[in-house]
């Protein structure tokens, strides 16, 4: 069962799961999902992960053997304004889902976590065992989810893996593109299409060009990591937390240059003030992903920007 399968990342996970020969049932409340992202021949159950009876029934009806849990609210700024809502949706939703997992005796679980759990690390690349000091309620809810899984696995046969995604970008198919404007690439593309310069938040960070460095991961690579994580939870009883990034950082100006190449014109930008809580660099250590998942990213930044631009042109 894939929760949040009508979302940006979830729709790519459907493709990867089917390519691996698995059957999937999607559970989604459509709060930010799109019906057309789920292929017509994939069963789609409309409802919330917080509806325990519905989830248990879905697990029974579809003989669910494992869960990949992506359904969550993900807007960092909104989480600062509405912390109760974020805890209710992300932590309350997971609690209820895990209760259903226990009742239905499902033993394999892959959880969508975030690099947001690291906050402002002292150094980069960041290791999974390093300090976790999230800077927003959103990041906190993701970290609490990891704790919940570890606590539950201590008292029931649950094999789990939490994937800490870095900056997800690109599209495997124009129809599955990221339509939210919460991430750098969609924001810049929106500004560019509306004739506005993009804002670069700070150019005085201790990085080679002064702008923030992030680890951008192609959504198709990320989707494949979920299949590997699902396999891992089936092969042995594990409790793993794994970074999913490329291990290579790109600065904001490098992203703008790459987008300019994909668009065929330079992207206009202006320098704004730093935003509170933005670390200068946040890049994943990918050793654990390589060793434990046997997974490495295949796509680079230009693949991400060009697929995002193609998807935008298609819209
Ligand atoms: N996009 C990123 O850059 C990024 C980075 C790190 C982590 N994540 C995590 O990845 C996951 C998926 O993110 P996305 O970018 O695809 O977001 P998205 O908003 O496109 O997808 C989320 C999906 O979950 C569904 N959903 C939300 N609440 C639900 C609920 N209570 N019950 C059932 N369905 C519900 C939505 O309708 C949507 O289809 C989230 O958990 C998010 O926190 C995303």
Task: Describe the fold and architecture.
- By secondary structure, the chain is an alpha/beta fold.
- It has two domains: 2-170 and 216-245 and 286-293, Rossmann fold, CATH 3.40.50; 174-213 and 248-283 and 299-310, UDP-galactose 4-epimerase, domain 1.
- The chain contains ten helices and 14 strands.
- The strands form four sheets. A seven-stranded parallel sheet has the order 3-2-1-4-5-6-11, sandwiched between helices. A three-stranded mixed sheet has the order 12-9-14.
- Strand 5 (108-114), helix 5 (137-153) and strand 6 (159-165) form a beta-alpha-beta unit.
- Helix 4 packs parallel to helix 5 (137-153).
Question: What would a concise description of this structure say?
Answer:
By secondary structure, this protein is an alpha/beta fold.
């Amino acid at each position: 069962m894939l929760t949040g399968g009508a979302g940006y990342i979830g729709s790519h996970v459907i493709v990867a799961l089917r390519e691996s020969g698995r059957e999937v049932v999607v559970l989604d409340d459509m709060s930010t999902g799109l019906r057309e992202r789920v292929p017509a021949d994939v069963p789609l159950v409309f409802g919330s992960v917080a509806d325990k009876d519905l989830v248990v029934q879905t697990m029974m009806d579809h003989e669910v053997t494992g869960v990949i849990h992506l359904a969550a609210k993900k807007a960092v700024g909104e989480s600062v304004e509405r912390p109760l809502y974020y805890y209710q949706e992300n932590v309350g939703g997971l609690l209820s889902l895990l209760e259903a997992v226990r009742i239905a005796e499902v033993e394999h679980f892959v959880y969508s976590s975030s690099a947001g759990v690291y906050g402002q690390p002292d150094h980069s690349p960041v290791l999974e065992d390093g300090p976790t000091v999230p800077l927003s309620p959103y990041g906190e809810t993701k970290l609490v989810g990891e704790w919940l899984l570890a606590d539950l696995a201590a008292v029931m046969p649950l094999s789990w893996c939490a994937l800490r995604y870095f900056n997800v970008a690109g599209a495997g198919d124009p129809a599955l593109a990221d339509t939210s404007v919460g991430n750098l690439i969609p924001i810049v593309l929106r500004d560019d299409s509306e004739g506005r310069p993009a804002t670069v938040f700070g150019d005085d960070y201790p990085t080679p060009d002064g702008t923030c460095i992030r680890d951008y991961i192609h959504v198709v690579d990320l989707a494949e990591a979920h299949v590997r994580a699902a396999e891992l939870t089936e092969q042995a009883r594990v409790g793993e937390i794994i970074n999913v990034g490329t291990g290579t950082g790109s600065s904001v100006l490098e992203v703008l240059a790459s987008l300019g190449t994909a668009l065929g014109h330079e992207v206009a930008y202006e320098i704004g003030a730093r935003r509170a809580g933005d670390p200068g660099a946040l890049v994943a250590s990918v050793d654990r992903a390589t060793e434990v998942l046997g997974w490495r990213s295949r796509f680079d930044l230009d693949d991400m920007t060009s697929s995002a631009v193609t998807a935008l042109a298609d819209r």
